[in-house]
Amino acid sequence: xxxxxxxMNVSVDGxxxxxxxxxxxxxxxxxLFGFWSDRLRATExxxxxxxxxxxxxxxxxxxxxxxxxxxAETEFAHRWRDMAKVVFSSTVDEVDWxxxxxxxxxxxxxxxxxxxxxxxxxxxxxxxxxxxxRAGLIDEYVxxxxxxxxxxGTPFFTALDxxxxxxxxxxxxxxxGVVLSRYETRR
Length: 187
What we know:
Elements: E1 4-11, E2 15-17, H1 30-41, E3 45-49, H2 50-57, H3 71-82, E4 84-88, E5 99-102, H4 106-115, E6 121-124, H5 126-134, E7 140-146, E8 154-155, E9 166-173, E10 179-185
Parallel strand pairs: 1-6, 1-7, 3-4, 3-6, 4-5
Antiparallel strand pairs: 2-8, 7-10, 9-10
């Protein structure tokens, strides 16, 4: 059975994007970028909602061809293009770069994917992750908490019908002040 992991950069007040979908506050340091790159290396399948897919697919397919690109960014771009991805969206028309589009029931498909043998899956996008969270499908939460308050926007966590008990697995502080926290769902 696969593990499903939800992780993103988050503000201290719990948002993954400020009002207007502004993520300028979450620009990663080299250490934070390395952390996310290592996580991508350990991931077998990435699951995206439509909005996050549009953001990622507008940059990473050609990021390694941009002026001033770092070796770490080049490696991440290659890894991102090559890995298997699933996009859950009724508004995205086509996908590329080892990606499959699922316009139907995301929770049913994620449940099916979790039941398969294989490596870990990452899920990204607040709406998609929220549906998986409410369905009890997420096994691990990874928060890269930036030392900033944004005051509103897109929350990392969705409203839940019941609380979810977690076990703290790891916490560490990067030199840039970002606190990395990993929690496993207690079942």
